[in-house]
Amino acid sequence: MSEENILISTRNLTKRFGSKEVLRGIDCDIKVGEKVAIIGPSGSGKSTFLRCLNLLEIPSGGTVTVNGEVLFESDMQQKGDELAAIKKKIRDLLSGEYSEEVQTHREEAEQVKADIKRAREELQEAKMKVKLLTVKIRRSRGKQKAAEQNHSDNSKDQGESLSMQLDAAMSSLEQKLDEITDLKETLAGINAKIRQKKREARQVADMDELARLKEAKKEASQAYRLAKKEHNGAMKRTNAAIDEHRRNMGMVFQHFNLFNNLTVMENIMLAPVALGVKDLKAKRKELFKRKLKGKDVSEQLSSLPEKLEIEENAKARARRLLKRVGLEDKADVYPSTLSGGQKQRIAIVRALAMNPRVMLFDEPTSALDPEMVGEVLEVIRELADEGMTMVIVTHEIGFAREVATRVLFIDEGVIKEDAPPKELFGNPKDARLKEFLSKVL
């Protein structure tokens, strides 16, 4: 893949939410004109990856490059992980936790804990059985009195049988109580051995190894502080470039995210007008600075558009796009009056109004009724036919097979397989992908 054709590139992309690692090092290149479908089970990191591409989610680490320009780069998380790993090794060495004898006793303790859990479950079953038999015996005595009046021996025999069952259940209950008591005593003994072995391990700890780890910790701490400083600097540069970046990357969400207090036309025009006016002010400011330095900028100033012209151009483009998706007559209505399929088509138009180089779709049909899915997919299919670069997170396997030029299968935060649709669906190599496709095809 030639570098000049790569529009978006990620290297070792990671994302964490607290202690949960959602993305675990994703390397991916997306070429100009490609239609990349992303599939995988729920919670696998698909949407997070998509949102990291336009920095709606700031990655925890790695590199995001767009059109050859590094938009985000940081190894702070990696350096932090390395420091944390060294600190853990020091704690383990000083605690004696990972001596061979301690580990053996830990395994014994885990087995005893499992036995206690099993015994407690059996105890609860025995208690329930005793309660049920007690209720049955109480009812049986009532029937027995009635039977004595009728000179019948059946109820008496039944009562004796229930009493025997109750005695057996009570005996089982007592045995389980005794078993749990014995297991707890065994566990206490094992824990005492663990404490003793840890003390012994600490007394014979390798001081040379400890010294080496402390020196490594010092170096890792310095590396982490430097990485953190570089990360903060990179974030400032990223924040400065992020608006320009997002202009070229349209985003369509699962739940439309239209402004209900604005008409359809106002929703579509909002971003082009706001950014057009912002650009206009910036250009005027720059030209006035040059004018103050004695340069003649009258021709450039006169050529700048007025705000009204920006609005009219945005409105004209919005009408063309609405006509394209068959919703020209909905320009002046509010989103609350539209169906789900119509709202999603408006959301696509809103993204296209910025004339982006790439479109990102985050499960665009997941919030739609089945009968509305087709009209949205048809719009996306038309964009694909026109050569728009697209990245689509989707559960519509048939659509991915038909439209995509590449399919990524993401599971547990990593790309498990990356191949053309015919190969990925027809001859999957990854075992997890095979399992996934067996459930969705």
Short descriptors:
single chain; 441 residues; alpha/beta; six-stranded mixed β-sheet; 13 helices; 10 strands
Give a quick rundown of the structure:
The chain has helices at residues 46-53, 76-95, 100-149, 154-203, 207-247, 264-292, 298-303, 307-324, 340-352, 370-385, 397-403, 421-426, 431-440, and strands at residues 6-17, 20-31, 35-39, 61-66, 69-74, 249-252, 358-362, 389-393, 406-411, 414-419. The chain has 441 residues and is an alpha/beta fold.
What would your notes on this structure say?
Helices cover 62% and strands 15% of the residues. A six-stranded mixed beta sheet has the order 6-7-8-3-9-10, sandwiched between helices. A four-stranded antiparallel beta sheet has the order 2-1-4-5. The chain is built from 13 helices and ten strands.
How is this fold's topology laid out?
Layout: E1 6-17, E2 20-31, E3 35-39, H1 46-53, E4 61-66, E5 69-74, H2 76-95, H3 100-149, H4 154-203, H5 207-247, E6 249-252, H6 264-292, H7 298-303, H8 307-324, H9 340-352, E7 358-362, H10 370-385, E8 389-393, H11 397-403, E9 406-411, E10 414-419, H12 421-426, H13 431-440
The helix count comes to: 13
Main pleated sheet: 6 strands, mixed
Percent in helix: 55-70%
Work out the strand percent. 15-25%
Number of strands: 10
Q: Looking across the biggest beta sheet, what order are the strands in? A: 6-7-8-3-9-10
What would you call the shape?
A: extended
- Give the overall pLDDT as a whole number: 87
Rounded to an integer in angstroms, the radius of gyration calculated over CA atoms is 34 Å
